Amino acid sequence: MKKHNFSAGPCILPAEVMKKASDAVLELDGIGLSLIEISHRSKEFVAIMEKARSLALELLGLEGKGYQALYLQGGASLQFPMLAYNLLENKAGYLNTGTWSSNALKEAKIIGNAVEVASSKDKNFNFIPKGFDIPADLDYLHLTSNNTIFGTQIKDFPSTNVPLVCDMSSDIFSRQLDFSKFDLIYAGAQKNMGPAGTTLVVIKEDLLGKVTRKIPSMLNYQVHIGKDSMFNTPAVFPVYVCMLTLQWLKDMGGIAAIEEINEKKAKLIYSEIDLNPLFQGFAAKEDRSNMNATFTLKDEKLKDTFDAMWKEAGINGLNGHRSVGGYRASMYNALTLESVGVLVDVMSDLERKA
Ligand SMILES: Cc1ncc(COP(=O)(O)O)c(C=O)c1O
């Protein structure tokens, strides 16, 4: 039986995408060859890459608005120094809302003058700082839209004339936003898009070409744009799966349709966390993530019983990150409302038993 997969990433993908992807490993669309044994320069793969790029822009509402979509390698972590290499000339600002933002800032500091504009570190990142000053002379302000580990999510993005750069690794394509507010968006594939191995980078082209430093080709967004995201051999299988997932999302009605389901899932789990006296939420209520719900047991003595119960119910991947402890229910796009219902039932069963 397929488990209810609450893993934080790599994580659940839509079942029909998994089926099509596994078929393509054996034979791609009746061509007598596997997806992973054809040239990335073949007309079949060039069409896949083009579709993956255009679907990303279409779903984000960014087609024809001066943006380019790239599928790069090195994970979201390579974007931390890469974006600074391409954009940081004088000063960059970072909103520090968790481990990933801290890492992004640390890497940018190697490249140039990167400063923290605000932080929630003093409260173990359980909230999103608001109303902080944004220096007008920043080359860009870096944000992390969703903090995978701590379970917080930015609901209102700062309004500023400073270019916005956003790590959307763990909530891209999950909710409607005015994506044209952002000048650069990046996201590792392994949550809402596909397997690990590729990173979507969406860039407003007029942001580029302003730094004076020389940029190695593999780290240069303009080089990748000039080669239609095929400067070197792309991660063909992950890009193919991303294309399938984005097509799946488009067919179901796009981001608006999945957002509605994501909101139902989040409401269901958070109301159980709030009503069940055995549990307590980690993140500040107004900043709670719709993707990663973090919570703890008030009485640690119930841990073994609860762990045995959710495992018995076929649930996978519920353990919290070591920096928060407790539990984390990751509810990415492909996780069904039914799976969240199974978890909520286990939590209320525990209340009855305790
Ligand atoms: C918000 C966020 N940013 C960055 C990363 C790092 O991604 P990668 O492992 O692809 O480098 C993660 C990984 O979970 C993440 O959740």
Topology (SSEs and partners):
Layout: E1 4-5, H1 15-26, H2 43-59, E2 67-72, H3 75-87, E3 92-96, H4 99-111, E4 114-119, E5 140-144, E6 146-147, E7 152-153, E8 164-167, E9 184-188, E10 199-204, H5 221-226, H6 236-251, H7 254-275, E11 279-281, E12 292-297, H8 303-312, E13 315-316, E14 327-330, H9 337-353
Parallel strand pairs: 1-13, 3-4, 3-5, 5-8, 8-9
Antiparallel strand pairs: 2-10, 6-7, 9-10, 11-12, 12-14
The chain binds pyridoxal-5'-phosphate.
Pyridoxal-5'-phosphate (PLP) is lined by residues 9, 75-77, 100, 144, 148, 167, 169-170, 188.
Describe this entry's structure for a reader.
By secondary structure, this protein is α/β, with parallel strands linked by helices. It contains nine helices and 14 strands. Strands 2-10-9-8-5-3-4 form a seven-stranded mixed sheet, sandwiched between helices. The longest helix has 22 residues, at 254-275. The chain starts with a strand and ends with a helix. The mean pLDDT is 98. Residues 9, 75-77, 100, 144, 148, 167, 169-170, 188 line the site of pyridoxal-5'-phosphate.
Give helix and strand order, one letter per element, not per position: EHHEHEHEEEEEEEHHHEEHEEH
Enumerate the spans where pLDDT stays under 50 for 5 or more consecutive residues.
none
The general outline is globular
Q: Bound small molecules, which ones? A: pyridoxal-5'-phosphate
CATH class of the largest domain, anyone?
Alpha Beta
Sheet-strand content, in percent, reads 15-25%
Determine the structural class based on helices, strands and strand pairing.
alpha/beta
Major sheet: order of its strands? 2-10-9-8-5-3-4
CATH homologous superfamily (4th level) name of the largest domain: Type I PLP-dependent aspartate aminotransferase-like (Major domain)
Sheet with most strands: 7 strands, mixed
* Number of separate helices: 9
What is CATH's topology name of the largest domain?
Aspartate Aminotransferase, domain 2
Question: What is the average of the pLDDT values?
Answer: 98
Distance between the termini: 28 Å
The number of distinct β-strands equals: 14
> In the residues, how many domains can be counted?
2
Nearest-angstrom radius of gyration?
A: 21 Å
In the CATH hierarchy, the architecture of the largest domain is: 3-Layer(aba) Sandwich
Domain Aminotransferase class V: 5-340
Cofactor: pyridoxal 5'-phosphate
EC number: 2.6.1.52
Binding site for pyridoxal 5'-phosphate: 76-77, 100, 148, 167, 190, 232-233
